[in-house]
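Example record for the data management plan.
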Amino acid sequence: MAKPSTVFTCTACGATQTKWSGRCEACGAWNTIVEDVPLSAGPAKKSLGPARGRRLALSDLATSEPEPPRAASGLGEFDRVLGGGLVPASAILVGGDPGIGKSTLLLQAAAAFANQGLKCLYISGEEASAQVRMRARRLGLAEAPVKLATETDLRAILTTLEAEKPDLAIIDSIQTLWADMVDSAPGSVAQVRASAHELTVFAKRHGTAVMLVGHVTKEGQIAGPRVVEHMVDTVLYFEGERGHQFRILRSVKNRFGPADEIGVFEMTGGGLAEVANPSALFLSERGTPAPGAAVFAGIEGTRPVLTEIQALVAPSPLGTPRRSAVGLDAGRLSTTLAVLEARCGIPFAGFDVYLNVAGGLKVTEPAADLAVAAALLSAREDVALPPDCVLFGEISLSGALRPVAQTENRLKEALKLGFSSAIAPERSKLGAPGGMKVRQMPDLTAFVGEIFGAG
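Corresponding structural encoding:
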């Protein structure tokens, strides 16, 4: 490797020259020329070389800066997931299954922000303008002051955004864009990475908030490189089952608000309607208490949500019984079954087990373990649980019940919906509201003996 050429720099003005001299030729200062070490010692075409950039202005951690201003759309559930509203110069990535309602949601959001006085552009790369206008008429948004365009050329889109200077730009979708400096087909990893980078940099430089729609893979992850999720400020997933009218917008990353926050919507003929009280909606179809049903008091982000966990245990004609879980991790179901058999002596070896979270909600927190175990035991013993009781608690491999966070918020939400009793682990910080009877259990064996009369 060739030795990098020596560079001399003036400490007064920063000018560079190839040899030392007593006087700077640029500013005329004397004795200010010093030998400079190149930034990188690699090959000239593969490294930074001797050229230097501008010096950054540094600040300490005690420097106080005001909170970023937020623009509220008026859609309470959408603003909640964003952390309280739209932050200028932010980049937001929205993913979801095909046909789940991503374009409908963002068109409604664009209309809501536009009605609040923001300048909004909706650029579609998948649909023609007539299709977007038809959807707007169906949703009753035809009069909203939203500017519309259809384009897939990234250079043309950035030129238009620079000229229009909107407050919010929605790109539907990032997989349809193509950049002319990348030699690959639209939708490829290189094109998606380049398009997302250019749009994110544009958002930071010009103060425009950019929302990108992303396709998902069969596994439910946003298609393309995961680096796209690291580029943006917020990543939202739009979830829901085709057979349910509920749609859940979940924040899995948010630099301006809490992660794992959810917004609940109901799909109607006139678009997506926000649901202010999702617990009442998820429990609205509960009828006469039946075996295999348990109400779980969970926490989604900062909001307590009550939902019903349903289980079915039936004799299996197969040598290997089936294990099916919808809305819950199948691994946690298998762990709970193993703990019930090893610690409580209740076998499920000859039974098919089916578990479902009602309403299409996906439960990820370990606090659902106790409700899952209760639903499984209720279905196996054909005994209905008390209709006014909620459950929550994490089950360890030893069979002990571990306390969970935000117990008081769970109990308040249950009391508000008419539940009068709860079963929780010992050592939980209750602070129970008046009218709520809480039974604390030390382990799973004590729970089985008290509720089902076996141990």
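Summary line stored alongside the record: The CA atoms of residues 293 and 310 lie 5 Å apart.
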